[in-house]
Design a protein that fits this description.
It is elongated, with a radius of gyration of 21 Å. It folds into 2 domains: 211 residues, P-loop containing nucleotide triphosphate hydrolases (Rossmann fold); 88 residues. The chain starts with 8 loop residues before the first strand and ends with a helix. It has 313 residues and is α/β, with parallel strands linked by helices. Helix 14 packs antiparallel against helix 15. It binds adenosine-5'-triphosphate and magnesium ion.
Length: 313
């Protein structure tokens, strides 16, 4: 199984926690928090320096499934904001990493959560020993200097936070920094990409129509059998034969979605199982640990999945 060393994630939750810790000592104290010191962004400095950490340096492995690569390239050529829709662990994040690499554009990823505020995206004033200075948030950084800004699990963010992307995702392509009194005109290379799992939204948590209608959408799903087996074998280091069996189990489990399972077994889980098998773990034990136990606590469902495993191993 591969790590993703080439990917820099900007995590507002950690930043929010760091700020909360600092808030006990006046607003000024929060400025010398870990967030301020570790955040690799600044409103000054050359574009190349600022975005260098976000360049995808080596080619991510991505097996195209249909015409998504061509469609994304066409969308990027007109800077259309793009929504990647699909269940967990089906390749959305890997796809955007691959596209950023292919297009040679920096990729700034934001893991969205409900504590995230508009300032976490846009930026804020910080106080340090030299006085007050503005620090661009990830969205402002990407818009100002020309990166792809990937808002992962955007539905987790509150709607009043999500609306800050509106002026950047329509014909205006601007970002007003109200606190700073500045209007950023988006760099020509800038694009917004969001990910969205259609199974997870509820009445309380969904994107507003006015947000959805600013994006083109690419549908993702688990790839068809041969392709998924190829991906599982490649990523886990197990044989193609074992990978095919894992995919059979995955397909069986996916048929149980809505009949006791909330979500099907993801490609990611199949890769986990394959990695354990490649390390010498017995296939039954590997599948129990990586596929069956994480996905359900229901004893009957466990039995059903365990028996699917024994059919193939
Ligand atoms: N088409 C593909 N080509 C290469 N690898 C893939 C592909 N699809 C899935 N994978 C593998 O599956 C793993 C999970 O995919 P990824 O992390 O992109 O899922 P995701 O859709 O972003 O899930 P989540 O919604 O949970 O964030 C990847 O790390 C990668 O190893
Ligand atoms: Mg992802």
């Amino acid at each position: 199984m591969r790590n993703d060393p080439f990917m820099r994630t900007y995590s507002p939750r950690q930043e929010a926690m760091a700020r909360a810790a600092g808030a006990q000592n006046t607003a000024a104290a929060s400025t010398q928090s870990a967030a301020a010191l570790t955040r690799p962004v600044s409103a000054t400095g050359s574009t190349a320096d600022l975005l260098a950490p976000y360049l995808v340096k080596s080619q991510p492995y991505y097996r195209s499934v249909a015409d998504e690569v061509e469609l994304y390239e066409a969308a990027y050529s007109v800077r259309m904001p793009i929504m990647l829709k699909g269940p967990t662990g089906c390749g959305k994040t890997r796809f955007v990493e691959y596209m950023a690499w292919k297009l040679g554009k920096p990729l700034i990823t934001v893991a969205c959560n409900e504590d995230m505020t508009a300032s976490d995206l846009v930026g804020r004033f910080l106080l340090d020993v030299n006085g007050t200075r503005w620090q661009d948030g990830p969205l402002a950084l990407a818009a100002r200097h020309g990166a792809i800004c990937y808002l992962d699990e955007v539905v987790e963010a509150r709607q009043d936070t999500t609306v800050v992307i509106h002026p950047l995702t329509d014909a205006r392509r601007v970002l007003p920094l109200e606190k700073k009194g500045e209007l950023i005109e988006a760099h020509p290379d800038f694009q917004v990409v969001i990910s969205y799992n259609p199974g997870y939204q509820s009445l309380m948590k969904d994107l507003k129509q006015s947000t959805k209608q600013r994006f083109g959408a690419l549908d993702f799903n688990y790839p068809e059998h041969e392709v998924e087996a190829e991906i599982v074998a490649h990523e886990s280091g197990t044989s193609l034969e074992v990978a095919k069996n894992l995919v059979h189990i995955g397909e069986r489990a996916r048929n149980l979605k809505g009949h006791g399972l909330d979500e099907g077994l993801s490609t990611r889980m199949l890769i986990y199982a394959g990695s354990l098998i490649a390390k010498g773990v017995a296939p039954l034990a590997a599948c129990r640990v990586a596929l069956v136990r994480p996905i359900t606590d229901d004893p009957d469902m466990r039995d059903a999945l365990d028996s699917a495993v024994t059919t193939y191993f």
